[in-house]
Amino acid sequence: MPTLLSLPVSDGRIRGRTRRRFRCGLMLCAALVGVGSLPSLGHARPPLGERLDAALRHPALRAAQLSILVEDEKTEQVIYERDPEKRLIPASNMKIMTALAALEMFGPSHRFATRILTDRAPDSSGSVGRLAVLGGGDPVLNSEDWWRLAADLRRLGLRRVEGDILVDDSLFDREYWHPQWKGRSARAYHAPVSALTANYGSFFIAIQPGSAAGDPVRVAVDPPIASLQIINRAVTGPPESSPTLSVQRGGQGAQAEIFTVTGKLPATDETDFVPRSVQDAALYAGAVLKLQLEAVGIEVGGSVRRGSANLPHVLATHEGRSLAEIVRLFMKYSNNAMAESLVKSMAVEAGQRPGTWPAGLAAMRAKLSKLRLLGTGAVLADGSGLSTDNRLSARMLVDALRVGGRSFRVGPEFVSAFPIASRDGTLENRTARSTDLVRAKTGLLSDQRVTALSGYLLRPDGDVAVFSILVNGHAGRSKSAMDAVDRLVAELTRR
Question: Is 95 marked active-site?
Fold first, then answer.
């Protein structure tokens, strides 16, 4: 099964061997975009400005609002612009601001600590009465990290927890979903924002076809948490049929979260891994810890419940991944929960406890303003870009890219966090005509017809350019708009 470290945040399915074929197919499609615009042999290539203007006449962009700026990174000379001061919805390009502010506030080597406390030191038999987990805002703890922590506890002499495991996420407030987000679904990108979490507040449902058409599909949860319960109403379809699977949250009981699987999965199909989010991230993290304690031979007599970590004995402190790695993960894979967790951590760092969105965004704005970024008119509604109330211009984003890239303190970590064209992250299946020539953050809000791409690119003369392309209100499907943006970038990198 795939590691939850690479859990996708744009909802979808992962299919074993078919994923590679699907990826290659998308890259081929991207490579074919704009082939008809190649100049004929023996004819001079039109000037860059004309080629970019032509790319913007793509049907998906004709009626859209645009804010575009491309500048030479060293000289700051404008290479191309189109309403660069216009403030538009940036979608996940907001994460560029969050990443820069967090790196500047904490430093790349900062680590968030998760503490294990008990009512007493382990006795001669290795027993304690109660065990508490105090969340420190680490947004990237996964199942493997919780196993490592459980193994460390065993090494420290722990053999049995007689009572309950208490989970304490009081470092942040209990507003787990931003009030401006439209709707709250079970999809992985809508995971709750908590100071204590596991696997980004998400898990996989593995769905396999039965032996023959009409048989129930086989369903399993990864990680196998008992409180994540599945109602299986899906069946195996004929071999050549199309998959029609649907996974919906079906409610929440006193001790369980319920998900219902319906539809069909063809008999010859491979296993689908469907990511979904939990409703209570802290209880889920405690359940993952309990699972891993038992896996290393530590008995747990009680259950997992919420409670204060105000216990007298600190048994262990887990220092998580560095902020540099956290930023790389949430930028490469556009993870919303990670970005919002950093916003609330910035609130705590600025003196607000528990951390809240208003205090975190104020601290974020103050840090960016100190860097002489944003100016007037910028609207920071959240840290991930899910809110449609965010407003940034291409100029603001280019300025942030330049300041971040030039910073001795955070520049290398900042730039390396961006997806690489046609190689990894959210650009893995895009920008095939600019492979290795672009490092950029994507943005997408399909229901709002918003797409964005901002970052760095290598020009044909060997110089680096910083760029931002914001598109609001495009026509047609999101893929058409993304293809149009990729074509624009391809012209900028074309040799």
Answer: yes
